[in-house]
Design goal:
The complex is a heterodimer of chains A (about 325) and B (about 240). Chain A has about 325 residues and is mostly helical. Chain A is about 75% helix and about 0% strand. Chain A has a single domain, classed as ABC transporter involved in vitamin B12 uptake, BtuC (Orthogonal Bundle), CATH 1.10.3470. Chain A has a two-stranded antiparallel ribbon. Chain A is globular. The relative contact order of chain B is 0.17. Classes of the chains: A mainly alpha (about 325), B alpha/beta (about 240). At the A-B interface, helix 7 and helix 8 of A face helix 2 and helix 3 of B.
């Protein structure tokens, strides 16, 4: 950060920009981009707790996103409950699954953990595609018209935008609180050397389990928000591998293991995706894979720390150069 | 008796890395473990630190059986260790590294920071320096600081003084002495005989998984088996000349 742009001022400016964005750009197109950006930022920030801070790179986080997405519509389809009532149910399912898979998979490390998470997510996606209760391959549909505000079905994008923004604010506040406490230090220590961390008394497996459970809970909320907005879910849009890969790329592009890295990543990737979708339409559906692959190669080759890390290195130099001129 | 390791063995397949080693450590001692590379010192060290579970034998620390306990349980019981290849937390500053150790006895972050500051000052490090910018001597010192912040009763130093210049070595020896004066019992694995002769009162010599000699440093360096297996004939000549 430069001398004038203190961290507190930067956060205030960011909060102000996000609050004013729908007012400054009132068109439905821009507001839709805003909502998509917030959803990507929430998902990636949730992934960041376990994948970024603890360095346990899950490539199967869509399992939690999907559970959060299916839960509200399942309760609506079974008993006509408003989708909002399904959000805590989704969180419960996601945390339960996190604990169930965390016990065996946290014995694995590095690539093996990543591969195990992909396998579990794919297993759930395939099972959901053949299970009639959850709509099999067709998926589930939410209320077509709102019965009341509690159905959270709005014509305007504004309620979604500010609702999502509030969730993002809560998630970032929790992450910031973790960063400064023992739990946050333990996560970063485990990421660098689990062996050394354990020798200092860090209960590594328990710490990773807590991080995965918290990350799963917020990823599930992201899934619920997605379904509340779209009113529809199927196995691919809930449990598909692209959902997981997007979380990883957004966080890694901005800076995994940093508070605002996922926001920076979403700020770049969401407009980029919107642009490719607009230019190429449905014919360019495979382009997403190329885009993601290209970004992975570029990050791994040139900036493993992500753009936020690059900014941290460049900002002091740019400031000095500006003042010397 | 602070630590009692009895008949400790560790096998990897058919290879017996440690074969029935015994070690008793009294409160307040500094003990040295020496021997050629591959003698089983580090494996024995890992057994005592809880990183490796012995195939046979028993390890009792402060009256508690820790033979099969996890590394974190060892740390909680009061055993701290450094690594042969320093394993510092590269993405953190010096003080944050030390805070990870301090959190074991001081869960509150303000208390942990105060404890870490005291230790950083004692070890002569710079609190805000990024760990990744430290050289090997700095990293080894940081590891010692990190372990010290966890307030161990027993500190296991695995070649923590290797690769230092003569000046750095003198400073490191002074630091180990200061830690010992604080009431910490120390077991040190080292190849540098100057360290062993200066710091320790008792030495165990390992060779091919067995303890082949034990006694005061002056006694063991004269033993034929030790000269043959570790010190070499050159040492005998130097000893004779001296």
């Amino acid at each position: 950060m430069t001398r004038f742009l203190t961290p507190r001022l930067a956060v205030a400016l960011l909060a102000g920009a996000l609050l004013l964005y729908p007012v400054a750009l009132p068109g439905a197109f821009y507001r839709d981009i805003g909502v998509t950006f917030l959803l990507a930022a929430i998902s990636a920030s949730a992934w960041n707790i376990v994948g970024g801070y603890a360095g346990q790179v899950s490539v199967g986080h869509s399992m939690f996103f999907g559970l959060g997405a299916y839960a509200p519509l399942l309760l609506y389809n079974l008993w006509g409950w408003p989708p909002i009532a399904g959000i805590p149910f989704g969180i419960l399912l996601a945390v339960g699954l996190a604990l169930a898979i965390g016990i065996p998979t946290f014995r694995l490390s590095g690539h093996y953990f990543s591969m195990a998470t992909i396998a579990v997510a794919e297993l759930i996606r395939i099972s959901a595609g053949t299970w009639d209760l959850v709509g099999a391959a067709i998926g589930l549909q939410g209320p077509a018209t709102a019965r009341g505000w509690w159905d959270l079905t709005f014509r305007s994008e504004l309620p979604y935008y500010y609702g999502f923004l509030a969730v993002l604010g809560i998630l970032l506040a929790i992450t910031a609180a973790i960063e400064g406490r023992r739990f946050g230090y333990y996560l970063r220590a485990i990421k660098t050397s689990e062996r050394a961390a354990r020798s200092l008394g860090v209960p590594a497996r328990l710490t990773k389990m807590k991080a995965l459970a918290l990350s799963a809970a917020f990823t599930s909320v992201a899934g619920s928000l997605y379904v509340v907005k779209t009113g529809f879910i199927d196995p691919d849009s809930g449990f598909g591998i692209l959902v997981s890969v997007q979380m990883v790329i957004v966080a890694a592009l901005g800076g995994a293991g940093t508070l605002f890295g996922p926001l920076v990543g979403a700020l770049i990737l969401v407009p980029l995706q919107t642009a490719t979708n607009t230019w190429f339409g449905g014919g360019g559906s495979g382009l997403t894979y190329i885009l993601y692959g290209g970004i992975i190669v570029l990050i791994a080759r040139f900036e493993p720390g992500g753009l936020f890390d690059l900014w941290h290195r460049l900002a002091p130099r740019l400031w000095k150069r500006g003042h010397a001129a | 008796m602070l630590l009692e390791a009895t008949n400790v063995s560790k096998a990897f397949g058919n290879f017996l890395a440690v074969a029935g080693a015994d070690l008793s450590v009294d409160d307040g001692e500094i003990i040295g473990l020496i021997g050629p590379n591959g003698a089983g010192k580090s494996t024995f060290f890992n057994c005592v630190a809880g990183e490796t579970t012995p195939t046979a034998g028993r390890i009792v620390f402060a009256g508690q059986d820790v033979t099969r306990a996890s590394p974190e349980a060892h740390a909680r019981a009061g055993i701290g260790r450094t690594f042969q290849v320093p394993a510092t937390f590269e993405d953190m500053s010096v003080i944050h590294n030390v805070m990870v150790g301090a959190f074991l006895r001081h869960p509150d972050r303000h208390d942990a920071r105060d404890q870490a500051r005291r230790i950083v000052e004692l070890t002569g490090l710079r609190a805000d320096q990024p760990a990744r910018s430290l050289g090997t001597p700095g990293r080894k010192r940081l590891e010692i600081a990190r372990v010290l912040a966890a307030e161990p009763k027993l500190m296991l130093l695995d070649e923590s003084l290797a690769g230092l210049t003569p000046t750095e070595l003198r400073q490191a020896i002074a630091l180990v002495r200061r830690i010992h004066e604080m009431g910490v019992t120390i077991v040190i694995v080292e190849h540098i005989m100057e360290v062993i002769m200066t710091l320790t009162k008792r030495v165990l010599v390992f060779n091919q998984g067995h303890v082949i000699a034990s006694g005061t440093p002056e006694e063991v360096v004269k033993e034929e088996a030790v000269i043959e297996a570790y010190l070499g004939r050159r040492h005998r000549r130097q000893d004779g000349n001296g």
